[in-house]
Amino acid sequence: MKQAFFFVLLSLLVFSCKEEVVSYSPTPYVLKEPSHFPKMDIPADNPMTKEGVKLGRHLFYEERLSGDNTMSCASCHAPNLSFSDGEVTSTGIDGIAGNRNSMALVNLGYQHFFFWDGRSKTLEEQILEPVPNPIEMHESWTNAVLKLKDDVKYNAMFFEAFGTYEYDSTHVAKAVAQFIRTMISGNAEYDILYKVENGIALSDAETVRYNAITNQELEGYELFKSLNGADCIHCHSGPMAQIEGLRNNGLDATFTDLGRAEVTGDANDEGKFKVPTLRNIALTAPYMHDGRFATLEEVIDHYSTGIQQSPTLDPMIEFAFQGGVQLDEYEKNAVLAFLHCLTDSSFITNPAFSDPE
After folding, report:
1. DSSP H helical segments within the chain, as ranges?
2. Domain boundaries, the chain
């Protein structure tokens, strides 16, 4: 009897210690893309799955990816700030400030190069950089992954997403990329104006919102588009409210940060930086690659009277010879009012983008 009882007890202990059985049967994730957006290009080697997006969301908020377990991706990319951080430049775990402003994470799945200098060609490649960067999260990928593997929850989620327990940094990057590709913003008043201008039918709710747009906002939109007005349309157009390019927008006559030229070594790229989206721009202060402008009013003043001449200045800044477009106060206020039409409150409050914990 004692022997039989021993074997029963041993069996109970074995089964109670056994990890939860998980399976690899990934479910395709269908992106909810706005009707006026282009179709997102998804890499063939990183298809979207519900399991991958779920894992990526957890990893985006995971502080164990940093050297002292205090910093996550979300530390510099907060939802209420359209996934920017509100700082001139971000500070890493060792108290060292970076030299560039934290870019907002919005509609990145539609873009084809990343960072202010465009050095990464894929979202997955971009995600690999902050963890080992000594002025950011300052952790080796080897240590970061080992910390994840100490967590039964992560082992299960990685297997569900990728069918392996032997995951590494590439799997982390793929999962986070999948999550970031779901972060689509396309429900601002700007989208309603875009639809009307392009003959796209509005829903009843959108019609109500369109009718609530003020005359000042409409005047600002016209100035925004006008080549003889604010002349913003060269760099900020279409459903993304940006072009895919790197431009010198007249911030400096000489450069302390060479921008794209630091990557290419080409003097013709000096002072050129990625054109950012204007989506949710009212939420992402301070502005420019170095966070030099604290307010949108300062940004508008720069393009109105502050353009600096240099050999690589974007030739599309047509009024550079006079310092800018020379807007008066009425026009500046109208443009400012319109820029608030690019705010998508449903994006920053979307529970699917929040911390899962």
Report:
1. 2-17, 50-60, 123-127, 141-149, 152-162, 169-181, 189-197, 204-212, 215-225, 261-264, 296-305, 329-339, 345-348
2. 22-184, 189-346
C-alpha–C-alpha distance, residues 144 and 160, integer Å: 20
The separation between CA 26 and the C-alpha centre of its own chain, rounded to angstroms, equals: 26
Residue pair 29/54 in contact by the 8 Å Cβ criterion: no
Q: What is the third-level CATH fold of 22-184?
A: Cytochrome Bc1 Complex; Chain D, domain 2 (1.10.760)
Mind listing the pLDDT tens digit for each residue in 334-347? 999 999 999 999 99
pLDDT tens track for 16-37: 444 456 889 999 999 999 999 9
189-346: same fold as 22-184? Answer: yes
pTM above 0.90, yes or no: yes
The CATH architecture to which 189-346 belongs is Orthogonal Bundle (1.10)
| Cβ–Cβ under 8 Å, residues 124 and 43 | yes
Q: Which residues contact 203 (CB under 8 A, 6 or more apart)?
A: none
Cα–Cα dist 147/94, whole Å: 20
